[in-house]
Each structure stands twice: as C-alpha cells, then as structure tokens.
C-alpha cells in the first residue's frame, strides 16, 4: 500500500511537471528555441502572484486572472523585441541570451524581494485531502493540479490540432520560410507561441508557490525537471510530455519512499536510463528528417 | 492595366549579385513565362517579387503601388503568392491542412478547399493523409492548390514540371489554363520551354541575372530563344 500511495502521489506530482514542461516543449517545437530562463519565468510569475495577492487581497488561484495575462504579455514582448532577432542562427545564440536572462531575472527578484522564501496561501485547500478508500488519500490540491494540467493539455491539443493558429504553428515548425509564403507573419506567430508558453508556465509557478516555498533562485531546478519530462516523453508530443512528467514524478516519489534522500536522484536516474535506451523519448512523434 | 511592374530590380545573396537591373511589366490577366538555364536568376526573380529576398522599395509595384521590400506575408495579403521550387509541402500537416494553411490570410476570392479538390480529384481521395505521403506530381498539385487557396491576384509558380512525368506536366498545365480563366495573372518559371511557351502570352528569357530576350512566343524563333537561353 505504501508503494501504491507513492505511485499515486507521483502521478499527481507529474501533472505539475507537465505544466512546467509544456511551454518549454511548445516553443522548442515551434521555433527550435531552448529557453533556459523558463524555470525563472515560473518563479517570476509566482512573485507576481505574491504582489497581486497582497495588493488586491485575493486568493492566489484568483490572482491567476492577473498573473497569466501579465506573463503572456511579457512573453510576447520578449519574443518580438529580443528573441526573434536570434532565430535562424542556430541554437546557441538563444541559449546564451536566455541563460543571461535567467541570471537577470534571479538577481532582479533578489533585489526586489530579498532572499526570503515565500509561499502562496490559498486558504485551506492546500491541506485538504480526498480519501480514495483502502486507507489511501490524496491531497485535494495535487488532484486539482493534475486536473488543471490535463485540461490545459487538452485545450492546447485542440488549439494546435484544429485551429488556424495551430496549423500555422505546425507549418512554421516544419519550415518557417515557406510558412511566410502562406501569409503567416512568423515574427508575430513566434511572439504568440512565447506568450502561450509563459502563460502556461505562469500557472505552473503559481501552483508551485501554493505547494511549496520558493525563493528567487528556485527556477533552475524547475527548468531541469521540465527538461527531463520533455525528454522522457519525447519532443513534439503533448501527451508524451504529460507521460514524461508522470514518469518523473513517480520515480521521484517512489525513490523518496526507498530513502528520503533518493527522490530527486531516482528521477535523474530514470531520465538517464530513458536517454540511453530511447534517446528520442518514449512517445516521440515520428518525424521525417530532411 | 499593368498589375506587376518591375523596375531596375537587383537582388543579392550576401555579396553575390544574382539579378542585375531587371525591368518588366505584366498586364492583369496575362500569363508570362520566365525561361532560362540553371542559375540564370529565374527563381531569384520570383523570390524577389514575392518578398522572400530584400529588394529596393521602388523596384516592385503592384497595381501601381510600390511594394518592394515588404515581407512575404504582407505581399500574400495583397495577392502576390509564390508556389515555391521543390513544392515545400508541410510534413506535419495533412493534405487538407496544407490547403487550409494556404488560406491563412482569408483573402476573398473564388478558391475554396472544395474547388481545389474539383480541380485535383487525386487530392480529395487522400485529404487526411500527411501531405508528404503524396507522389511528386500530387505534391505539385497540392502546392499549386495551396497557392490558389490564398486567392492570389498574381500567382508565381516556380519550376512546375521539375522531375515530373510528361503526362503529369500536361495535366498541370491544363490546370493552369483554368486558373488563368479565373482571371488570375500568372508568372511561370520553367526550364522545359516547349510546354510553357504554349500557354504564355509573353516570355522573358533570363541569362546571368538579366533579361536576354523578351517577346510574344509566336513571334520569336527557335534560334532566337536558343541563342538567348545558352548565350550566342
């Protein structure tokens, strides 16, 4: 029963990892851009939520109504003003710039909010639990997080699979120059992709801030888990990203049950094993390589 | 009315100049052929007109308005659409989605997915397959259909017959005839001279990045064309 419990908790934790990973996967898919500041943006979003909660005196979950549009706007502006200039020159310039951005965000947060750890208080739901029977119970908030991840992924899947903007994302992902010949303004499209990416990671950051304490420097860990989830699941597959998050979450909780210090390590080991055995990920969408 | 005006158009790839002061005019509703050997600048010319290469502002006019240097997506909005060399079908999109993405700008006009399927019944049968699963000829049909979905005023078609069987090429030219019938202005780049001269009202022969010969196909002799094509 202990192991079933660990697995269930891990699955739910995987929902949170999927929330972190989805935006990372999306922008890599659409424009081959690796955003090393992705984790820091989630923490930035959590701090924006802290300010919103203090100023408007609202529940952090309600604050999402403010935080998500702010982060989306930041993403659009960042992409149009800075990152679009780096595209088409290989992967390295964007890696360097987003690495620098990561340092800027962390130090900016340290400057403004000090090094104190913070937490978002949603008023009770974070400690509520839902009994599953047989002595098992899951936290109401992890359950909500998982449901949120699934709903967001379904919505994103519908947008990418069915809508004109989703078709444009996929066309630009295949061949940006030809997409422009279809009348697609790729600069604007990439801006929208980054806006979507940061909007989703804003949700992840706020959820994280409710689950656990965070400081200005909590971002890079989040980035690492997000990368691991994406790579375990396989690039280009949203459901793969959820599966990757779940596998990573289960590995961590089961590992932690073996010995309290082993959680993160077990996660890394499972990640390395997948990288060795299936380098393209477990659920990679097969793609023709030209 | 002159739909497309090109004045002293030059284009560069880095330091390499690929077009030298090309000037020409295309009347609305006309079909124009651009022929020439490999490396004569035909594809560069189409790409420059379509906004895929940087050019001077005044070098390209559409219905009298200077549009040179505008990005490709803005020119699609105004009705200049390029069917690129090598077809460039989107691999992640189905046949139908490839057509739909052609209509991204939602320009008004006669072309719809259903009409393109009537033009190319082979595409309708495979509408849900990935675009790149099609044969070369079918991919060329899809590329032309995708271009038509933008409801172009001016359709630029690059190397329509490259690598295709003669019977397929003939079918594609029959389709171009019906596109022309809709009033769409066409510029067709070809290496295969005989096919395109049969449909074009005016022909430009490019050599070394400049116009070496121009005129109505009926008034040009085989010798003139071959001299301009290969250099005398």
Q: Can you put this structure into words, describing what you see?
A:
The complex is a heterodimer of chains A (290) and B (232). Chain A has a domain at 19-216. Chain A is built from eleven helices and two strands, in the order H-H-H-H-E-E-H-H-H-H-H-H-H. Chain A has helices spanning 2-31, 38-56, 60-81, 92-113, 140-162, 164-174, 176-181, 186-211, 219-233, 238-258, 263-277; strands spanning 129-133, 136-139. A two-stranded antiparallel ribbon of chain A has the order 1-2. In chain A, 51% of the residues are buried. Chain B has helices spanning 42-50, 72-78, 95-102, 113-119, 121-124, 136-148, 166-181, 193-199, 222-230; strands spanning 2-13, 16-27, 31-36, 60-62, 65-66, 80-83, 154-158, 185-190, 202-207, 210-215. Chain B is built from nine helices and ten strands. Chain B is globular. In chain B, strands 6-7-8-3-9-10 form a six-stranded mixed β-sheet, with helices on both faces. The A-B interface holds A 164, 167-168, 170-171, 173-175, 177-186, 287-288 and B 50, 52, 71-74, 76-77, 81-82, 84, 88, 90-93, 97, 100-102, 104-105, 132, 146, 150.
Properties at a glance:
heterodimer, A: mainly alpha, two-stranded antiparallel ribbon, B: alpha/beta, six-stranded mixed β-sheet, globular
User: What is the topology, as strand order, of the major beta sheet of chain A?
Assistant: 1-2
| Global morphology of chain B | globular
End-to-end C-alpha gap of chain A: 49 Å
The percent range for helix content of chain A is over 70%
Number of strands of chain B: 10
Q: What is the count of structural domains of chain B?
A: 1
Major beta-sheet overview of chain A: 2 strands, antiparallel
| CATH class category name of chain B | Alpha Beta
Query: Care to count the β-strands of chain A?
Result: 2
Our count of helices of chain B gives 9
Shape of chain A: globular
The portion of residues forming beta strands of chain B comes to 25-35%
């Amino acid at each position: 029963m202990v192991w079933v419990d660990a697995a269930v908790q891990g699955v739910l934790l995987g929902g949170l990892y999927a929330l972190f990973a989805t935006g990372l996967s999306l922008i890599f898919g659409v424009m081959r851009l690796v955003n090393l500041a992705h984790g820091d943006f989630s923490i930035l979003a959590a701090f924006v939520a802290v300010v919103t909660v203090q100023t408007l005196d609202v529940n952090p979950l309600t604050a999402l109504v403010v935080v998500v549009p702010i982060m989306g706007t930041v993403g659009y502006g960042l992409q149009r003003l800075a990152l679009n200039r780096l595209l088409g020159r290989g992967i390295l310039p964007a890696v360097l710039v987003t690495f620098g951005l990561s340092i800027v965000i962390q130090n900016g947060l340290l400057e403004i909010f000090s090094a104190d750890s913070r937490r978002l208080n949603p008023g009770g739901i974070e400690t509520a639990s839902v009994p599953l029977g047989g002595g098992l119970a899951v936290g109401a908030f992890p359950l909500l997080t998982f449901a949120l991840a699934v709903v967001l992924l379904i919505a994103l899947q519908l947008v990418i699979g069915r809508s004109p903007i989703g078709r444009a994302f996929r066309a630009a992902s295949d061949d940006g120059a030809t997409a422009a010949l279809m009348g697609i303004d790729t600069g604007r499209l990439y801006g929208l992709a980054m806006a979507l990416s940061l909007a989703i990671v804003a949700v992840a950051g706020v959820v994280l801030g409710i689950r656990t304490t965070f400081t200005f420097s909590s971002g890079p860990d989040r980035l690492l888990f997000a990368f691991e989830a994406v790579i375990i699941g396989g690039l280009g597959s949203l459901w793969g990203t959820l599966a990757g998050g779940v596998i990573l979450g289960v590995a961590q909780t089961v590992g932690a049950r073996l010995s309290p210090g082993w959680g993160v390590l077990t996660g890394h080991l499972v990640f390395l094993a997948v990288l060795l055995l299936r380098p393209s990920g477990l659920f990679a969408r097969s793609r023709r390589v030209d | 009315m002159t739909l497309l005006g090109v004045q002293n158009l030059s284009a560069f790839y880095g330091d390499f100049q690929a077009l030298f002061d090309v000037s020409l005019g295309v009347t609305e509703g006309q079909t124009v052929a651009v022929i020439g050997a490999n490396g004569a600048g035909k594809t560069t010319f189409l790409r420059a007109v379509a906004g895929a290469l940087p050019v001077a502002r005044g070098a390209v006019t559409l219905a009298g308005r200077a549009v040179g240097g505008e990005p490709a997506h803005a020119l699609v909005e105004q009705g200049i659409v390029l069917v690129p060399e090598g077809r460039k079908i989107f691999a992640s999109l189905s046949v139908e989605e490839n057509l739909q993405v052609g209509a991204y700008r939602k320009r008004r006009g006669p072309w719809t997915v259903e009409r393109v399927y009537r033009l190319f019944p082979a595409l309708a049968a495979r509408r849900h397959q990935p675009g790149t699963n099609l044969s070369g000829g079918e991919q060329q049909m899809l590329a032309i259909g995708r271009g038509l979905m933008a409801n172009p005023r001016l359709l630029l078609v690059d190397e329509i017959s490259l690598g295709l069987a003669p019977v397929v090429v003939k079918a594609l030219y029959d389709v171009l005839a019906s596109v022309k019938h809709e009033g769409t202005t066409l510029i067709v780049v070809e290496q295969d001279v005989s096919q395109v001269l049969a449909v074009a009202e005016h022909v430009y022969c490019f050599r070394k990045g400049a116009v070496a010969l121009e005129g109505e196909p009926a008034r040009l002799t085989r010798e003139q064309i071959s001299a301009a094509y290969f250099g005398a």
